[in-house]
Design a protein that fits this description.
The protein is 62% helix and 0% strand. The protein is mainly alpha-helical.
């Protein structure tokens, strides 16, 4: 039975809920916090990527997640490679300051893990290779996509 009457919306809600459940299993059972963690880390990651790669990653995200990924997107400043790894972490921590305490490293690990499980392995490899070593090293080693269609 369709929840929204549009299969595209139903699929993106289902996929987004799966992603939020996975993040919640790592950072705690608050979906609002999971959504904030997901959006904060995705936007920080996006800003580290070359524009074309950022767009290719965005295309593999569930439609609802894609919306938050592109929120406040300014392609003219990508990649933000002149920022240090400490600034990357600090920006994430600052953007998480309006929710219950969640460490930036925990947030990054949870979101990078979800991406590794739901985005194609080839895309994840390209994203990882484009990141500075210290950020790339934050990416947990997790199996590839559990369900390649989950991102659609």
């Amino acid at each position: 039975m369709s929840t929204t009457g549009l299969s595209l919306f139903d699929r993106t809600l289902q996929s987004t809920n799966i992603w939020l459940d996975e993040i919640s299993s790592e950072i705690g059972p608050d979906r609002a916090v999971a959504w904030k963690v997901l959006s904060t880390v995705l936007q920080a990651l996006r800003d580290q990527l070359p524009v074309e790669l950022a767009a290719h990653l965005g295309a593999q995200l569930p439609l609802l997640v894609r919306g938050v990924y592109y929120d406040r997107f300014d392609p003219t400043v990508l990649p933000a490679s002149n920022r240090s790894d400490e600034e990357f972490m600090a920006d994430i921590q600052d953007n998480l300051s309006d929710i219950r305490p969640v460490g930036a490293q925990d947030a990054i690990a949870a979101v990078f893990g979800v991406l590794s499980r739901h985005v194609s392995q080839g895309q994840i490899d390209k994203v990882r290779r484009s990141l500075r070593k210290n950020i790339r090293d934050m990416w947990p080693d997790v199996p590839g996509p559990a369900n390649a269609s989950a991102a659609k």
